[in-house]
C-alpha cells in the first residue's frame, strides 16, 4: 500500500487526528477546523466539509460533515486492516 513514505502507523494516527477534529466541530466545541495530508486538504464546519486539492486551484468537492466523518473513519479502519488481496470497501455517503 502507498503510505506516502510516512509509514502505515503515521497514516492511521493522522486519520485518528482528523476524526478527533471532526468530532470537536460536530460537537460544537469549535466552529471550524482544517485537516490535510500531502495532496488534499479539508476545511469543515458543523454542516459542510470542503475537500480540496493542495496543488490544483479550484479543484474541490463539498460534502456533509457527518458524511465526511463516516468516510474518514471507514478509511482508517480499511488501512488499519492491512493489505488483503481482492479487498474492497464501499461507503454509503
Largest sheet, in brief, is:
4 strands, antiparallel
Give the proportion of residues in helices: 25-40%
**Element order: H for helix, E for strand:** HEEEEH
Question: Which percent band covers the strand fraction?
Answer: 15-25%
Number of continuous helical runs: 2
Query: Which quaternary structure do these chains form?
Result: single chain
How far apart are the termini?
24 Å
- Give the C-alpha Rg: 14 Å
- Total beta strand runs: 4
Summed up, the domain count is: 1
| Unreliable parts | none
Question: What is the mean pLDDT?
Answer: 89
- Order of strands across the widest beta sheet? 1-2-3-4
Q: What form results from the Cα inertia axes?
A: globular
Look at the helices and sheets and give the structural class. Answer: alpha+beta
Brief summary of the model shown:
The protein has helices at 8-26, 65-80, and strands at residues 33-36, 40-44, 48-53, 60-64. It is α+β, with helices and mostly antiparallel strands. The model has no long low-confidence stretch (mean pLDDT 89).
What does the secondary structure layout of this molecule look like, with pairings?
Layout: H1 8-26, E1 33-36, E2 40-44, E3 48-53, E4 60-64, H2 65-80
Antiparallel strand pairs: 1-2, 2-3, 3-4
Describe the structure.
This protein is an alpha+beta fold. It has one domain. Helix content is 38%, strand content 22%. Strands 1-2-3-4 form a four-stranded antiparallel sheet. The longest helix is centred in the first third of the chain and has 19 residues. The protein is globular, with a radius of gyration of 14 Å.
Amino acid at each position: 500500500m502507498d503510505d506516502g513514505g510516512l509509514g502505515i502507523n503515521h497514516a492511521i494516527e493522522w486519520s485518528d487526528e482528523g476524526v478527533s477534529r471532526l468530532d470537536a466541530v460536530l460537537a460544537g466545541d469549535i466552529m471550524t477546523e482544517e485537516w490535510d495530508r500531502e495532496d488534499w486538504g479539508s476545511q469543515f464546519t458543523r454542516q459542510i466539509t470542503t475537500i480540496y486539492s493542495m496543488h490544483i486551484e479550484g479543484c474541490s468537492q463539498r460534502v456533509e460533515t457527518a458524511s465526511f466523518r463516516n468516510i474518514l473513519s471507514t478509511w482508517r479502519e480499511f488501512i488499519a486492516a492491512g493489505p488483503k488481496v481482492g479487498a474492497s470497501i464501499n461507503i454509503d455517503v
